[in-house]
Write a structure and sequence with these properties.
Distance between the termini: 32 Å
CATH class of the largest domain: Alpha Beta
CATH architecture of the largest domain: 3-Layer(aba) Sandwich
Low-confidence stretches: 1-22
Number of domains: 2
Mean pLDDT: 91
Number of strands: 18
Helix content: 25-40%
Shape: globular
């Protein structure tokens, strides 16, 4: 990872020192970018702040990378994206409801203190009342076959499922007979023959000479478990052998015509901003009487005036305090902690805390997935883009293009308001990671983009 990071810095320095004549010498090295296809899940799609919308797609890392290839005449034709119809977009909020894009607003907390909070740009979608609007988002996109085929919500095995993009599966979801596990309208709108083609079948329609598989293609195989606080019998981590078999089939199909490519490793989902909004010791006790009563209620636990570890029910059913290495989910109802008795007299339900046992479960799966990715990349002579190592590094903060970024919620710059998906700056950062991996493997010299040219979160009234 250090080697890749140093390579990024060196490339940026070289580009800043180049003359216009030298920049004309940009070449593809050993790679053939004439027809490029990119597959992945919501991060690859450009999902941002709870929704997929037109502007976010235009700033996806794939679109940014393609613009660099086009700028230097390394790619033929247009890079086709199945655009959404507007910048309101559609997605799913933390409660599982259909929602539009979110933005930052000034508001007050339960104590009357001024805070910044994330709110939808319009009321959440009501299926009966907003049926025609929702339909506009999921009608078949025109202009395919597309170069960007990314499915928000999809797990690895969904990319080789014909049922997942069938109209019948979408009807089943709408009527309550099915779930997002059975079908996905984000996929069906991109397919030329829904129900008879998989996502990878559709990707092969452009006869790619080069492909990119995003690190999120396995990200959702662990993400749902993590963001549900683990321990949910309905949302578990994809079995290791199932992931291995699926990824093997995907790579075999995509390399079958001789295409070159790059694949991203699965990021450590515990490093994302979803787990950085709240902290293990966010229980504030303002008087000794309450601290004393809590010590009586929970023998063996320590409470004091000031900050204290939250009380919760762990994955084994034990009531205890959250440890420093355990993580609080972004959807914890904090006002019930701040102005109520949650996390203290009433323990937090385990779905709001990712405890050390669940974190270890995620680590084992992520390590295995990435071992499989690296093995298959070696077997099929593909480049590897280290999403995992770099996500872990940025979680503690580092400087890129003269600015400090981190996984901190709102202030970190990389993650959008849902805490999972990127800002436009974050997507430019992923584009640069991908470019660096390609340059290293295929001896190309594609210039990186300047992150300062891309937007982060927009604050109300110009606040910072």
């Amino acid at each position: 990872m250090k080697k890749l990071f140093i390579l990024c810095l060196v490339t940026v320095f070289i580009l800043q020192s180049c003359s216009k004549d030298e920049l004309k010498k940009v070449n593809s090295g050993d790679a053939d970018f004439k027809r490029i296809v990119i597959v992945g899940a919501s991060i690859t799609a450009g999902f941002s702040s709870f929704a997929l919308y037109r502007e976010s797609q235009m700033n996806s890392y794939g679109a940014i990378l393609a613009s660099q290839l086009k700028k230097y005449n390394l790619m033929e034709g247009d890079f086709k994206i199945p655009y959404m119809p507007d910048d309101i977009g559609v997605g799913i909020d933390n409660a599982g409801n259909l929602c539009p894009r979110y933005h930052l607003v000034d508001t007050l907390d339960c104590n009357g203190n001024s805070i910044l909070d994330a709110k939808p740009v319009r009321p959440n979608f009501n299926i009966p009342l907003d049926a025609s609007l929702l339909l506009s988002y999921f009608t078949p996109a025109k202009g395919g076959p597309f170069n960007l085929l990314a499915i928000p919500g999809a797990k690895s095995y969904h990319f080789i499922s014909k049922q997942y993009g069938s109209y019948q599966s979408i009807i089943d979801i709408a009527t309550g007979a099915g779930s997002i596990e059975d079908g996905n309208p984000f996929l069906s709108r991109m397919l030329s023959d829904p129900g008879n083609l998989t996502c990878i079948d559709e990707a092969m329609k452009i006869d790619p000479t080069f492909f990119i598989i995003g690190g999120d293609i396995g990200g959702n195989d662990v993400l749902g478990y993590a963001t549900n606080g683990g321990g949910d019998a309905n949302v578990d981590i994809t079995p290791l052998d199932k992931f291995d078999n699926t990824l093997t089939k995907i790579i075999q199909q995509m390399t079958g015509g001789g295409a070159q490519g790059v694949i991203g490793t699965v990021p450590d989902v515990t490093s994302i901003a979803f787990f950085r909004k709240y902290h293990y010791d966010d229980l504030i006790i303002d008087n000794e009487e309450r601290a004393s009563l809590l010590r009586l209620k929970y023998p063996g636990m320590n409470f004091k005036v000031g900050k204290n570890p939250l009380v919760f029910i762990d994955s084994y059913g034990t009531i205890r305090q959250v440890e420093p290495n355990e993580l609080i989910c972004i959807d914890m109802p904090y006002e019930k902690v701040l102005c109520g008795i949650w996390g203290a007299e009433t323990p937090l339900p385990q779905e709001y805390v990712l405890d050390k046992y669940e974190i270890q479960h995620i680590k084992v799966a992520t390590d295995h997935y990435n071992s499989t990715i690296r093995r298959l990349a070696g077997q099929y002579n593909l480049a590897v883009c280290d999403w995992n190592g770099t996500f872990n590094s940025v979680s503690n903060g580092y400087y890129i293009d003269g600015r400090k970024y981190s996984s901190d919620y709102i202030t970190g710059g990389i993650f959008s308001l849902d805490g999972v998906h990127a800002t436009y700056i974050g997507y430019a950062w992923i584009a640069n990671l991908t470019i660096a991996a390609i340059n290293e493997k295929y001896h190309s010299n594609i210039p990186m983009v300047n992150l300062n040219d891309y937007k982060g979160l927009e604050y109300p009234n110009g606040k910072k």
